[in-house]
Amino acid sequence: MTRCYAILITLIAITDIWADGAIKLYPDSKGEKAKVTITPYLADSASNTGIAVIVCPGGSYSWLDTKIEGISTAQWLQSNGINAYILRYRVANVSAYILGYRIFGIGNKYPDMLLDVEAALKHVYENSAMYNLDKNMIGVMGFSAGGHLTMSSYLYNDTPYKPTFLCPIYPVVTMSDKNYTHKRSRRGALGVWGQNNKTLRDSLSIEKHIDGTCPPVFLVNCKDDKTVKYQNSVLLDSALTANNVNHKYIQYNTGGHGFGASDTKGTEESRGWKQEFLQWILNLHHALR
């Protein structure tokens, strides 16, 4: 129990690291909804490409890795002329994951996180002139469970504010395949009772809902990922290919999980994804002009 509390305190600490300038997406709300924010990291005027990326950190839909998959990623994008917006979306919360109080039905769960990324897209689109953005280049990038949310931001989005490109990095994909499902993320998203609902699991299994309308996708993972089985990305790649979706899939042999945009985590091989992404996104932007 002592170890559990130590982990809880550590995770609460890392999920509280946020830059100044966070914007509340539900300013008139209270409770957990009031904590949902988007934090802009804007490119300077001289280097601004007009590209915008909403960044969704991972954390098994139970906490948010705001440092490596949030701030470090946003700063890297910003330094390369890309406007980044870190989304602090609703999750089950660390205590729900470690202490298990969600057995009583308490806590955030789907569709809370989907509504939050929709609200983020709405904010960015409606303020695109102020941010000096190209509306044809507003996308979502997410890591691990945030990668699942990235794909959801288009597939399950019924609003007019849809992303024009998607970048799931070592993503959670399936919620139904018994061999490959990341069960912690499924429980975080669906709750203790919802995780056993076959209809709900199938409905949120990304690979089952790809169609030809999906925007371009940049997908990366590592074969030695011990957290989210690499076959999640294989399932997504197969679905994208079957539906003729414009996408790039890079599978590295080494790098593991959770390296984000770090200059030290992962391996030299896996850290190459950043340069690959920059080339891909600039080519995409050029093609759309």
Notable characteristics:
289 residues; alpha/beta; eight-stranded mixed sheet; 37% helix; 14% strand; disordered N terminus
Describe the structure.
With 289 residues, the chain is of the alpha/beta class. Helix content is 37%, strand content 14%. The chain contains 10 helices and 8 strands. It has an 8-stranded mixed beta sheet with strand order 1-2-4-3-5-6-7-8, sandwiched between helices. Helix 4 crosses helix 6. The N terminus is likely disordered.
Provide the fold topology.
Elements: H1 2-14, E1 23-24, E2 37-41, E3 52-56, H2 67-79, E4 83-88, H3 94-99, H4 112-126, H5 128-131, E5 138-143, H6 145-155, E6 166-169, H7 183-194, H8 198-203, E7 217-222, H9 231-242, E8 247-252, H10 273-288
Parallel strand pairs: 3-4, 3-5, 5-6, 6-7, 7-8
Antiparallel strand pairs: 1-2, 2-4
Helix pairs in contact: 4-6
Distance between the termini: 57 Å
The gyration radius over C-alpha positions equals: 18 Å
Structural class: alpha/beta
Instruction: Going across the biggest sheet, name each strand in turn.
Output: 1-2-4-3-5-6-7-8
Strand content: 5-15%
DSSP summary, beta strand count? 8
Number of helices: 10
Give a short summary of the structure:
With 289 residues, the protein is an alpha/beta fold. The chain has helices at residues 2-14, 67-79, 94-99, 112-126, 128-131, 145-155, 183-194, 198-203, 231-242, 273-288, and strands at 23-24, 37-41, 52-56, 83-88, 138-143, 166-169, 217-222, 247-252. The protein starts with a helix and ends with a helix.
